[in-house]
Specification:
This protein has 175 residues and is mainly alpha-helical. It folds into two domains: 72 residues; 78 residues, no CATH class. The termini are far apart. It comes from Prauserella cavernicola. This is Tripartite tricarboxylate transporter TctB family protein.
């Protein structure tokens, strides 16, 4: 029967032929840091709620552009509030040292939104697709270019040709 990693009585490097070597338990943040993480998530959800109402939610029969952002922000706010309660009851967040990749993913998503404000959605998609597969996927350049061009082409054919969805024009003209 395997021991819990926190109750380990054997050295970490000990392993038997039929078990994996044990690893050290991940560091956990303290109460203040855990609460800061959860409060940050909750505040992002609340900001999303404010922005969703700002662009207009509409109604279920006549949805406005803010309806789905309202649903997503509501879920984020509820999840953040639930994790605040769990942190207050003693659960702690694991160390955030491995947060660079998710942060880069969020930054690339923000870049996509900013890019399609100035260039077409397809150009923004291609640029972010290249960066995503190269930086987060760790692929070599030839597969990155093949997957990025292919993925952008598939998105164009699926949405532009098959579904007949018009792609939005850039929101801001470049002077």
């Amino acid at each position: 029967m395997p021991l819990d990693s926190y109750d380990r009585t054997e050295p970490a490097e000990h392993s038997t032929p039929d078990t994996e070597p044990e690893t050290e338990p991940r560091a956990r943040l303290g109460l203040a840091a855990s609460l800061a993480v959860h409060i940050g998530v909750t505040l992002l959800g609340v900001a999303g709620l404010v922005l969703a109402f700002g662009v207009g939610v509409g109604s279920p029969t006549d949805p406005g552009p803010g309806l789905w952002p309202l649903v997503a922000a509501s879920l984020m706010t509820a999840a953040g509030m639930a994790t605040i309660v769990r942190a207050a009851l003693g659960e702690r967040v694991e160390s955030l040292r491995g947060s660079a990749r998710p942060a880069l993913g969020v930054a690339l998503a923000v870049l996509f939104v900013l890019l399609f404000s100035f260039v077409s959605v397809l150009v923004a998609l291609l640029v972010v697709y290249v960066l995503w597969t190269r930086l987060l996927g760790g692929m070599a350049w030839i597969p990155v270019l093949c997957w990025s061009l292919g993925g952008t082409a598939v998105m164009y054919v699926l949405f532009g040709v098959v579904l007949g969805t018009p792609f939005p024009a850039p929101l801001t003209a470049i002077p």
